[in-house]
Structures are given as structure tokens and as C-alpha cells.
Amino acid sequence: MNTVVVGGGVIGLATAWQAIRQGVTVTVIDPAPATKASHVSAGMLPPGNEQLYGQDDLLRLCLASRALYPSFVAELEEFASAGFRRDGVLDAAFDDDALAALDHQQSFQEALGIRTERLTAAECAKLQPAFAPALGGLLSPDDGAVDPRVLNEALITAIEALGGTVVRRRVVRVADHAVTLDNGDAVPFDRLVLAAGCWTHHIEGLPHDAVPEIRPVKGQILRLHSDRPLLDVTARALHKGSSLYLVPRPGGELVIGATYEERGYDETVTADGTRELLNRAAAVMPDVGALRFAEISAGLRPAAPDDLPVIGPTDVPDVYLATGHFRMGVQLAPVTAVAMAAYLTDTTPHPSVVPFTPLRFSS
Ligand SMILES: Cc1cc2nc3c(=O)[nH]c(=O)nc-3n(C[C@H](O)[C@H](O)[C@H](O)COP(=O)(O)OP(=O)(O)OC[C@H]3O[C@@H](n4cnc5c(N)ncnc54)[C@H](O)[C@@H]3O)c2cc1C
């Protein structure tokens, strides 16, 4: 079976790698693999949080991916480092409302079997000395983060090492079991996976209702640098009803994100975005202004009409979708990839992906 994967973000790359491991011949087509949302992403792999309250299907999908992450990474690290760390996520409360919300979060996580430790203000200060005084915290010691830039590179290395092909071109159209590229070349396929993030529905040639509109939700994100890591563990700072995440990397990089902006396909970075992130960071980490500026970048989160992932076969024979992962694509890459590889080899996918069928949008 010859499968073409359109889109080389983390979802397309992870899908391609898992399919190749199952014996599928795969060509990934992308003009610039791993340069869009999957490149700017923070790579937070948080435990359950308020976004999942009452969203049972999404919660099951997240838990399945969380369970798969260690083996997914271990298999990938046969080829290259995947930039994965599972040394804890600290939720630190900086006001009374946030502190009260931690009670709810702790019972929610513990009911799911996610280990938590409640921290006093003094324990938070000891764990994360660079923070302003927090009122208390919740540590999830079995969660963490991955560096998406390292992960994406590892996926490309593994795909190519196993005989997969990465073609650096844009797909314009699908017709008669072939995709047409922007240079006019046609690439035939037995099966096609569209994983082009928020550009997925722009690919021509498919019936209108086979591919839902995937809305871009812009996020700006900041990267600062210090000689040694300023924070010891990945953290979310809960303050004034919002959560700011701070992801330290081993080399001294600190990733601070992110904004949520509905501005269509606008990928510009702005002074306002930078100021918003710096102000929010300074409120919880007073010395942040002294760090070296490394990068401000923007990416477009791919959001389906119901803001949920879109994974599986469409009603067009041999055409599959893997998109719509919105703010969780890095987190959900393992379960999506394993499920897509099952679909592509005619085996039963992980049950947690079934509710995310693209057929929910067909008329
Ligand atoms: C600021 C920010 C922070 C984030 N933080 C996190 C986080 O901490 N944890 C988490 O889990 N998620 C996070 N996300 C969300 C996550 O990054 C996305 O859900 C994920 O990257 C989506 O991956 P993707 O492969 O579907 O899309 P993308 O990474 O956007 O990749 C789509 C690819 O398709 C290609 N493409 C487009 N059109 C065509 C075409 N016609 N032909 C061929 N190729 C095409 C593009 O070049 C691109 O490489 C964050 C996102 C942003 C923006």
C-alpha cells in the first residue's frame, strides 16, 4: 500500500512514522516540514486540566496519548533524541480563586489515577525559587514536556531511516488517486492522509463536506535564555483567571506562552503580543526582564468547527484526515499516529479516537 501524507507537522510526521513501522510505504509532502504550529509549540504535556472538565471523549483521548508517550519516545529514540522530559508539572496559584481551583483539579486528576502532590507556599518557593511568592501549588510528578523542534527532527530522521520519503513541495489538488504538486507533478497513492493543519480544507478536488473548515487560532510565544535553567520544572502560573505556561529546556531556554487570537491566517509577531507575554510573565517571575531575548514567534493552531480533533476515514474512499488538534497537537501526536497507522493497515484503531471521526461533519 502506497500512502501519501500531506503535511509534515507533528501530526503528519508522527502518522507517517507509525505507518512505516507497520509496513506501509509512505511519502510525506510538505513545502517546509515542521515549520508551522508544530515548530513554535511549547510542547507542554500537562495532566488533566480545566479544559477537559465535562469533555469525556477528549479526556479519554488525552489519557490514551499520555499513556503512549513513554513507549512512543523510547521507540523514536532508537533513531534520535526526542526531547522528552517527565519530571513534573507544577500548577502554581497566585490568587485565591486559583488556589481554590487547585482543589478541584487535584480531585479531578486523582480520580483519573494521575499522581499529584499538594504544595504549600513555602514548598512552591523551594521548588521554583525564581517565582514570585505563590499561595500554593499542585505538582504532577509524572507529567512534563517535550521539545517539539527536537521531536519533529527525530521523526524526520526516523521516517527517512526506515525508507520513507519526504518531498518538499505543496499539494494543490487531489484527483483520481493522485495528488498534484505546485510544480505540476502528480504523485499517485493508494491511500491519502490529509494532515495539513489549518490549511487542510484548502486542498482542492474533494467534495466540500468531506473536509471540515479548519480555523486558524493564532498563538504568539516567547523564548528567552539564561546560562543555566531558571526554572527546574515545567509550570503553569494561574493568575487572574488565566494560565501562563513556562517550559524550561535543559540548555537554558525558557518558553513562555501563549496568546490566543482569532485573526485568520495572520502569522505576524507583534509588539502587543510580546508585551502581553512579558507582562504576564513578570507578574509571576519578577526577574524575567533580565533574561536574554531569543525569539518571539507565532503559529496557527488548527481548530475544527467543534474545536475537537478530526481523525480517521472520510466518506471519500481511501482519503483520511488527521487534523483539528487545536491546542493539543503535540500532546495528542502519539494516539493520533497509532490510530492512523491502524486505519492504514485495516486494523482496529484505539477506541478513544472513534468519536473524532471526520464523518461527524458529513451531510
Ligand atoms: C503558540 C502555540 C503553542 C502551543 N503549545 C502547545 C503545547 O504546549 N502542547 C500541545 O500539545 N500543543 C500545543 N500547541 C498546538 C500544537 O502546536 C498544534 O496542535 C500542532 O502543532 C498541530 O500540528 P499539525 O501537524 O496538525 O499542524 P502544523 O504544525 O501547522 O503542520 C501543518 C503542515 O502542513 C503543511 N501544509 C499546509 N498546506 C499544505 C499543502 N497544500 N501541501 C503540503 N503541505 C501543506 C504546512 O507546511 C505544515 O508543515 C501550540 C500551538 C501554538 C501555536
- Helical region count? 8
The name of the CATH architecture of the largest domain is: 3-Layer(bba) Sandwich
Indicate the overall shape. globular
**Ligand inventory:** flavin-adenine dinucleotide
SSE string, helices as H and strands as E? EHEHEHEEHEHEEHEEEEEEEEEHEEEH
**How many β-strand stretches?**
20
Strand order of the largest sheet: 6-7-5-15-16-17-14-18
The tally of domains stands at 2
Based on CA atoms alone, the radius of gyration comes out at 20 Å
Distance between the termini: 29 Å
CATH level 1 class label of the largest domain: Alpha Beta
Low-confidence stretches: none
Mean pLDDT: 96
The largest sheet, given as strand count, sense and whether it forms a barrel, is: 8 strands, mixed
Strand content: 25-35%
CATH H-level homologous superfamily name of the largest domain: FAD/NAD(P)-binding domain
Could you describe the 3D structure shown?
With 363 residues, the protein is α+β, with helices and mostly antiparallel strands. The chain has 2 domains: 2-45 and 149-214 and 305-361, FAD/NAD(P)-binding domain; 89-142 and 216-303, D-Amino Acid Oxidase, Chain A, domain 2 (2-Layer Sandwich), CATH 3.30.9. 28% of the residues lie in helices and 27% in strands. An 8-stranded mixed sheet has the order 6-7-5-15-16-17-14-18. Strand 1 (2-6), helix 1 (10-21) and strand 2 (25-29) form a beta-alpha-beta unit. The two termini are 29 Å apart. The structure holds flavin-adenine dinucleotide. Flavin-adenine dinucleotide (FAD) is lined by residues 6-12, 29-33, 35-38, 40-44, 170-171, 195-197, 199, 203, 219, 221, 257-258, 299, 301-302, 323, 325-331. Flavin-adenine dinucleotide is lined by residues 6-12, 29-33, 35-38, 40-44, 170-171, 195-197, 199, 203, 219, 221, 257-258, 299, 301-302, 323, 325-331.
